[in-house]
Amino acid sequence: MLRRVLVVATVLLAFAPQAQAGDARSDARAQVEFGIKVAQNGLWKEAAYRWEKAIQIDPTYAAAWNNLAVAYEQQGNFEKAREAYEKAVELDPKNLMLRQNYDLFKEINDRTKRRRDR
Amino acid sequence: MTARNAGAIVSPLVLAGLLAGSAACTSFYEIPIETPIQPKMDVSMFQRVLIAGFISGGTEDVDANLETVRLLRSQLRTKSSLRVIEAEVLQLAEIAKEQAKGDSSAPPSPGGAADGPQQPVADDPSRIRNEKDLEKYQSIFADAAFWKKLGEEYQGPLIITGTVLFSPLSTAGYVPVEREYFDQLGRRRVIQSRIYQERKGFTLQPKLIYIDGRTGATLYSETLREEILYNAQQNTPALSSYFELMDKLIPSFLNTLSTQKIRGTRMLIK
Q1: What is the per-residue pLDDT across B23-76, written as a single tens digit (0 to 9) for each?
Q2: CB A101 to CB B12 under 8 A?
Q3: How far apart are the C-alpha atoms of A113 and B40, rounded to whole Å?
């Protein structure tokens, strides 16, 4: 019986930090989902606010960083957009959608810079 | 540990694994965005703009000075908050020539050579054919007194001037082509190949100079360049090519004075 209790306690302890992280992720996910809804209605400032909140709750949430980068891009805040995209790619380097967003952003940003440098 | 106990421990682990797996399946939404590109110049101190005229060269088939002035004015009329001044187009090349001949301390009247279209003579040694020929005329853009005097005539607007070189271009080389054929079953197929082709077209190289009409000082300048090539057998009028090339350059011109938006789509991820 004691051995059984010990095994269960060990398993629970092993999963405890993940459960906490899971809570943070689900709270952050709620913010991300709300942000997506408002962005689809064109309310980009509110969306950016929600995604900023999401990364405060869970700074390892790559999707939140990606969405925040898109919001910054839409607002013309290219420096912040670049930082957010870089963070998203760093957290989830294999995510192709994220990469595609970043590549499109870089294309526009680099073209604008080239024009300015001329 | 009995088999039953082991099963009781393993099953939460499997469940946790499944949950982690399902969490990895992200959902996404494609969303249209409009990326604002900030203007290259702050023109908030101007209410009016004068597209004065350009020193043009290259082909004689198009009066690049007149066409550029007309096109830029019409673009600004619809796509800028600045009021476009309708004035006679300056024949800047003639003015610059007079300046070079005459007394440099007394700039000629800006309206002095504005009458009648520029009529270049075929064998005229002063004809502008290339960038080197244009260089001789550059000093007029640095003549602040001339531009200030012109500005005074129109209550100090933003003045846009510069040079436009519209030249014929010919080249030969391998170009990619698509060949169509029908296979044995009657299906249409397309194969990519490369063929040697002689091509001709045009290059358009405007240098746009933005001058403060109140002081005559240059505020900003930029050189743009585009080229277009067609099959040598194709007969495309020079004026059509000119407009085709200007179409490509106009967004950059407009972005100098006002915010432009680039439309695209991005993926929002859950």
Answers
A1: 445 689 999 999 888 888 899 999 999 999 999 999 889 999 999 999 999 999
A2: no
A3: 10
For the domain A23-117, what is the CATH superfamily, name and number?
Tetratricopeptide repeat domain (1.25.40.10)
> Nearest C-alpha of chain B: how many angstroms from A117?
9
Residues listed for chain B? 270
CA B240 to chain centroid, in Å, comes to 16
Q: Are strands B48-58 and B158-182 parallel, antiparallel or unpaired?
A: parallel
Kindly state the average pLDDT of the residues A67-73. Answer: 97
User: Residue B56 forms beta bridges with which residues?
Assistant: B164
Query: Which two tokens mark A55?
Result: 């990364």
What are the structural domains of chain B?
Answer: 31-171+202-269 (3.30.160)
Cβ contact B5–A4 (<8 Å): yes
The token pair that represents A4 in the structure block? 């059984």
What pLDDT score was predicted for residue B110?
A: 52
- Contacts of residue B51, defined as CB under 8 A and 6 or more positions apart, other chains included, come to B69, B72, B73, B76, B84, B160, B161
Chain B CB contacts of A30 under 8 Å are none
For the question of an ipTM over 0.85, the answer is: no
Residues in A touching B264 (Cβ below 8 Å): 104, 108
Q: Is B11 an 8 Å CB contact of chain A?
A: no
Q: Is it the case that residue B8 has pLDDT exceeding 80?
A: no
Listed by number, the residues of chain B in 30-59 with a beta carbon closer than 8 Å to a beta carbon of chain A are 31, 33-38, 40
- Our CA angle for B209, A117, B166, nearest 5°, is 45
Contacts of B252 in chain A (CB under 8 A): 115
By Cβ distance, the residue of B1, B35, B269 closest to A74 is B35
Strand boundaries in chain B, DSSP class E: 28-37, 48-58, 83-84, 158-182, 188-212, 218-223, 226-231, 260-269
Give chain B positions within 8 Å (CB) of A11: 9, 12-13
Where exactly are the structural domains of chain A?
23-117
